[in-house]
């Protein structure tokens, strides 16, 4: 699989669209000078293009497998991982005190997108370690930090998240794994966890599991959950990997996609674990890890979309067929153009939203300003769900552009579609993201939402001069979204909010995407970015009206058909 | 995989929604009495549930394979095929003179939906034979008919379509396979064909290929294409399968889905073939075959959607998770309800559209009325593209309802999504269907479209009494669609029609779906059908506005970005 990193897009978005200049102007991120940013992205692009992209097909055709309890990874993945670790890409936003580069999350987001486009199955390993690093930075003791962070940041060790159990998926509070104090300051962890991504590998010296479990005196539900660090090998006196812990990979799943990423059932049989954070404080620590990972997963969607777009564009340009105008390639057919431009415009909008979310995270971290914190919190579920919806939609269209070749596995189009499919599900399904958006993220009475819409309206006002029609369309759309937001905030029966949560989130993504395109067009009025903006605003933005109509129906009628009557038979 | 045939839906749609009574009132289909219809559907349902559904997973996990030039099919497929053949399901609409049942295409459509829901990979074999039977009925000589039709109709032999070559996909006119007269009234066929579905098997005594090829004096493009019947085994004197023809299966494709259905590269090396229809008249014969198959493929989309819906509903009812109201199953969460009801409402609408198309085909066949013929021609691309879009959308949502289980292959949700993916591509991509709709199918100045919209408007008028809001919404939508249809008909630059063809077709599907739901609600106002209709009209129909906006932008802007500038890099 060949891949060309979208460096021009990143540069343009950072310089002109998502407000990265404000991040670079903070004291905390003063090192993120234009030269550094350029050097970082160029270097990451080279690794993704030269080292990771060639691994993508091998990960699919030679899945990770379990041999006598040991996970054997796909051919080349060990070398690919080494390149990621040695480049410093695992810990690029981690604390410099422990070996990280301390760079803004905005840059990590760009690099993560490139890595996911090139080889998502392997990048997923890094994404999980990044989440673990952030959780430990915020919640672990100094001793744990000193021991684990340098090894995680360097990539010598890697990290996983162990939340789900057979009866506890979206409902984490139902988990049963037990943690008993052993009198030596550590705990014996016992239970079974499922869907554990990258539970093991054959290229890092240790794998560190963050495990949610219950202490003996724990309350029921989420209030009784604590977080434990459970390494595959217990640290030896010199700090290296020592004797094996009581942790076992039971089996690997047979999955639709991401075959290169082992997904395991894990068994903890009195394994030694260290408490992270306070007793019964596991949910807070988990949310640190998950929030980071949610933006990361949204970014995986963008990466898959970009990869699928490049593959489809290349195919369409090369493929000669029918009486096409111009070059005679199928890319000259109006309907193929429509598909390709939609793929491009959707991917660009999703990229802008992910980077905007990252900018808010960076600004919150650098300034502590609650307004930035609220914006980061509000944009995270949108970046996750919108980015992954775009990933699923665009990779699906990538198959369509290929015609019959699209379903032949060797082409690679189908793999993008299979690999990205899980992203709308893991780290909280997109339904959960939407419920989070209309409930928790609107506990401020909609303030974070309205501030974002104010920015969209301001952008539309600025764009009126020269792009009157496009600006008006964006202004109207933000106004419609504002009215629906007001309606949602006024609903006190949460079921009425939840019933329209998914279409509401999608409409928000549409409007933010349109605003990003409009701003791009205003900043580069004589470039193809203006054509792309017109495409998005004229053809894709109108979808928001249907989505908002759906968002405002409420729960009426959803419960009027009994489950027995829902079968067609 | 378990499956329950939607017999209640079929009965209701035939009796109250799609106008099947008019078909049954014709002389040609006088045998299709209510008792016969009921017996036929019940018997087919039993076979699909008991014999075919249990084969679905085996087809996926044990793909058809090529061993020393011979195709070995998936375990149980031979027995499944025998059940289809012995039940008479292959030739249920075929000419009774040759052993067919002469039943309406409407019933074949219902049976084909059930078979595709149960095991699409095997059903696809039957669908192709049905297309071949129809092509031979219309275009073959009496001698060929007498020899081949009884064996195809009984299922003793089966049929394939050989159109595509590496350089000739959607552009059939580019094909190069040659046919040279051998002086004995037959022809020597030489060339390579690709994507040949069910090119061979190990359960029928013969496989008959309909092959498009060029005679020596052929013109370029589609005008120089002729159709040939090329059996795997040449007929012996007794009419049975005799010595092997010069036809070879070169290789099988490694596909995203439909693993149980072998897709081959075929080599014809001076194979003996019989001309079907007139020299250079291959396109007409092919369109007979394709038109039949297009409705059939749309129906596959409906079947996959129904199968995926049943699987998701069953899972959601069984799965207990979180603080759901009522029974505590995830089916009680508002967002899961929304997904399930959308799956159900979409599938029902697509089923209604497919059956309406079949009714038009039957009425055209029974009456010869050009108005019915035009309606059948207009509805065919909609039934194909809308049905398969629904198939892809609903199976995707089926994965989502399953959460993490959705991407575990053993669950079966992912298989529905993989299997149905090709249906938006084969038998003419959905882009080709949409172009056909806005060009060829509007050469009547939009008359067929406006007649359909008149029917929708009339239905809305009838429903005003008692369902005012729903009726108004449907009336408004048909009015918006009518205006866009007028706009399209007025565009003489076809690129302006083609640029919005796909969203236009989708909007048409939405409006026809809404009309079918409205009619259902009017006919059964106190049933869950009314709730379902409200769901569709309030939540899904509003999408039509965004689609129509997109349909009316025209080709403006599509060609303003050079292919070089379309890359993001």
TrEMBL record, chains A, B:
Superkingdom of source: Bacteria
Pfam family, one: Acyl-CoA_dh_N
Reaction catalysed by this enzyme: 3-(methylsulfanyl)propanoyl-CoA + oxidized [electron-transfer flavoprotein] + H(+) = 3-(methylsulfanyl)acryloyl-CoA + reduced [electron-transfer flavoprotein]
Domain Acyl-CoA dehydrogenase/oxidase C-terminal per the UniProt entry, residue ranges: 281-440
Keywords from the named record: FAD, Flavoprotein, Oxidoreductase
EC numbers, comma separated: 1.3.99.41
MF (Gene Ontology): flavin adenine dinucleotide binding; oxidoreductase activity, acting on the CH-CH group of donors
All residue ranges annotated as the Acyl-CoA dehydrogenase/oxidase N-terminal domain in the record: 38-156
Cofactor: FAD
Domain Acyl-CoA oxidase/dehydrogenase middle: 161-269
All residue ranges annotated as the Acetyl-CoA dehydrogenase-like C-terminal domain in the record: 453-560
Broad EC category: oxidoreductase
Family membership noted in the UniProt record: Belongs to the acyl-CoA dehydrogenase family.
Main function: Involved in the assimilation of dimethylsulphoniopropionate (DMSP), an important compound in the fixation of carbon in marine phytoplankton, by mediating the conversion of 3-(methylthio)propanoyl-CoA (MMPA-CoA) to 3-(methylthio)acryloyl-CoA (MTA-CoA).
Protein name (Swiss-Prot/TrEMBL): 3-methylmercaptopropionyl-CoA dehydrogenase
């Amino acid at each position: 699989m060949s891949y060309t990193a979208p460096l021009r897009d990143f540069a343009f978005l950072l310089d002109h669209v998502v407000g990265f200049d404000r991040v670079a102007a903070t004291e905390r991120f003063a090192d993120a000078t234009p030269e550094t940013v350029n050097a970082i992205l160029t270097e990451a692009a080279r690794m993704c293009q030269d080292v990771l992209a060639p691994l993508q097909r091998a990960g699919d055709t030679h899945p990770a497998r379990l041999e006598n309890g040991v996970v054997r990874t796909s051919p080349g993945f060990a070398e690919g991982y080494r390149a990621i670790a040695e480049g410093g890409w695992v810990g690029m936003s981690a604390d410099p005190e422990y070996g990280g580069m301390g760079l803004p999350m905005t840059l990590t987001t760009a690099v993560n997108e490139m890595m996911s486009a090139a080889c998502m199955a392997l990048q997923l390993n890094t994404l999980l370690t990044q989440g673990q690093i952030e959780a430990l930075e915020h919640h672990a003791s100094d001793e744990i930090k000193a021991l684990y962070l340098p090894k995680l940041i360097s990539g010598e060790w890697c990290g996983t998240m162990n939340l789900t159990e057979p009866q506890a998926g979206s409902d984490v509070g139902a988990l049963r794994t037990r943690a008993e104090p052993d009198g030596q300051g550590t705990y014996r962890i016992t239970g079974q966890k499922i869907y554990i991504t990258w539970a093991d590998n054959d290229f890092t010296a240790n794998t560190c599991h963050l495990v949610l479990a219950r202490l003996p005196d724990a309350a029921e539900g989420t209030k009784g959950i604590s977080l434990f660090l459970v390494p595959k090998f217990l640290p030896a006196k010199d700090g290296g990997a020592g004797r094996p812990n009581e942790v076992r990979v039971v089996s690997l799943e047979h999955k639709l996609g991401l075959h290169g990423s082992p997904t395991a059932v894990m068994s903890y049989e009195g394994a030694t674990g260290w408490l992270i954070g306070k007793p019964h404080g596991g949910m807070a620590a988990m949310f640190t890890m998950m929030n980071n990972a949610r933006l990361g997963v949204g970014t995986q969607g963008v990466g898959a979309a970009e990869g699928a777009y490049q593959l489809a564009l290349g195919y369409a340009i090369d493929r000669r067929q029918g009486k096409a105008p111009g070059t005679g390639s199928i890319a000259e057919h109006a309907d193929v153009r429509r598909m390709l431009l939609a793929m491009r415009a959707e991917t660009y909008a999703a990229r802008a939203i992910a980077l905007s979310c990252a900018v808010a995270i960076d600004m919150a971290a650098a300034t502590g300003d609650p307004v930035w914190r609220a914006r980061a919190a509000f944009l995270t579920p949108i970046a996750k769900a919108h980015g992954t919806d775009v990933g699923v939609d665009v990779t699906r269209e990538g198959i369509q552009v290929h015609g019959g070749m699209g379903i032949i596995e060797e082409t690679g189009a189908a793999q993008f579609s299979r690999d990205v499919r899980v992203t709308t599900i893991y780290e909280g399904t997109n339904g959960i993201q939407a419920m989070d958006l209309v409930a928790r993220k609107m506990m401020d009475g909609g303030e974070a939402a309205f501030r974002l819409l104010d920015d969209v309206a301001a952008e539309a006002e600025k764009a009126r001069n020269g792009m009157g029609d496009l600006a008006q369309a964006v202004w109207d759309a933000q106004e419609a979204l504002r009215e629906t937001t007001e309606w949602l905030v006024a609903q006190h029966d949460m079921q009425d909010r939840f019933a329209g949560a998914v279409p509401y989130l999608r409409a928000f993504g549409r409007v933010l995407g349109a605003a990003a395109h409009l701003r791009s067009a205003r900043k580069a009025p004589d470039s193809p970015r203006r054509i792309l903006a017109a495409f998005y605003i004229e053809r894709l933005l109108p979808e928001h009206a249907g989505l908002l109509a759906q968002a405002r129906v409420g729960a009426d009628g959803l419960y009027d058909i009994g489950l027995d009557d829902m079968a067609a038979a």
